[in-house]
Amino acid sequence: MSFHITNVTITQPNGDILLASFSLHIAKGEIVTLMGPSGCGKSTLLNYLAGHLNPEFIAKGALTLNNQAITEVPAHLRNIGVLFQDDLLFPHLTVWENLAFALPNNIKGNERKHQALTALAQLELAELANAYPHQISGGQRARISLTRLLMAKPKLILLDEPFSKLDSALRLQFRDWVFQQIQQASIPTLMVTHDKQDIPNDSQVVQWQQEPPHA
């Protein structure tokens, strides 16, 4: 799997250019880091890639995922996983139900629960299976959120400041675990951050300036 962004330009509602003729290639298992100050438009780019761009913005260019054009594909059919700084677990579902919800539709019945419980055992969090999100720690929610994303078997992962709300001790441990899981699954990944400590070793880094970036 690989992901290509080709000559993408995004224009803001007021006519200003947010992104100009931007191109990027992400290989399978590669984590590319997009850095820049808060409010510069990094999250807007992720929304465009995921298919959720505000219609007031105008975007031109081409997106290719695993050799298939997805520029005009609806968001729910792109098979892109997004991990935000907020975990976004469903509060009315137990931990195992949250994981089972992410599984592909071809997995049916009791097999969904079995796979969810197996994933929790691998995380060494089996005792949390019947707990609700508000009953577990922030670090546990973060690990379960990423596991839920991976269980959906996305072809591309977008990380939007996923470590920013974790304390420093947990942040380093969770960051390394996230990168390991992504690389083992061989999924191309784009991460936006403003913190240099979040950058994986040997990662390609795109520095987003205040002015529209080119690549």
Automatic annotation (TrEMBL):
<dbReference type="InterPro" id="IPR003439">
    <property type="entry name" value="ABC_transporter-like_ATP-bd"/>
</dbReference>
<dbReference type="InterPro" id="IPR003593">
    <property type="entry name" value="AAA+_ATPase"/>
</dbReference>
<protein>
    <submittedName>
        <fullName>ABC transporter ATP-binding protein</fullName>
    </submittedName>
</protein>
<feature type="domain" description="ABC transporter">
    <location>
        <begin position="3"/>
        <end position="212"/>
    </location>
</feature>
<keyword id="KW-0547">Nucleotide-binding</keyword>
<dbReference type="Pfam" id="PF00005">
    <property type="entry name" value="ABC_tran"/>
</dbReference>
<dbReference type="GO" id="GO:0016887">
    <property type="term" value="F:ATP hydrolysis activity"/>
</dbReference>
<keyword id="KW-0813">Transport</keyword>
<keyword id="KW-0067">ATP-binding</keyword>
<dbReference type="GO" id="GO:0005524">
    <property type="term" value="F:ATP binding"/>
</dbReference>
<dbReference type="InterPro" id="IPR027417">
    <property type="entry name" value="P-loop_NTPase"/>
</dbReference>
<dbReference type="InterPro" id="IPR050093">
    <property type="entry name" value="ABC_SmlMolc_Importer"/>
</dbReference>
